[in-house]
Design goal:
This protein is mostly helical and 137 residues long. It has 5 helices and no strands. 81% of the residues lie in helices and 0% in strands. The chain starts with a helix and ends in a 7-residue tail after the last helix.
Length: 137
């Protein structure tokens, strides 16, 4: 249970650091804006919801509510840089990821491989949305 809490704290700190890296570098282009909002806003509550349902499998309803609220706030946090529309979009996608996380965790029979894959996807996906990619190699 301590390891789960540490992993949640790690992912929160990682998301906060990545958010700080992009605060001044945001380009307001519609196709990039949606990706920069949706990837971290969806994957962070997914990771948190999976960890929580793995740690407390008997509290399914409570974990679903916590993950949904966390996803709503995390999505709003990532979407705030892009105005009211971005905040609304981020909140909705975070809410949906928070609702789905306990369902996915329960249906996968608490498979640690799924948890590791989602954590790697969160780190890799958020890094890809934040770090600049050179178009001309």
């Amino acid at each position: 249970m301590l390891a789960g809490g540490l992993f949640i704290i790690f992912h929160l700190a990682y998301a906060a650091w990545m958010d700080k890296q992009t605060y001044d570098k945001t380009a307001h282009e519609n196709f990039k804006e949606m990706n920069k909002i949706m990837v971290p806003a969806s994957l962070l509550p997914l990771v948190a919801g999976l960890w929580l349902i793995y740690m407390f499998p008997m509290y399914y309803v409570h974990i679903t509510l916590i993950a949904a609220l966390f996803g709503t706030f995390a999505g709003g946090w990532f979407g705030r840089k892009f105005g009211a529309d971005g905040m609304l979009y981020g909140s909705c996608s975070g809410f949906m990821a928070g609702i789905m996380a306990p369902m996915i965790g329960t249906m996968s029979s608490h498979d640690p491989l799924l948890l590791g894959l989602v954590q790697l996807l969160h780190i890799w996906g958020t890094a890809l949305t934040v770090l600049p990619i050179d178009k001309n190699p």
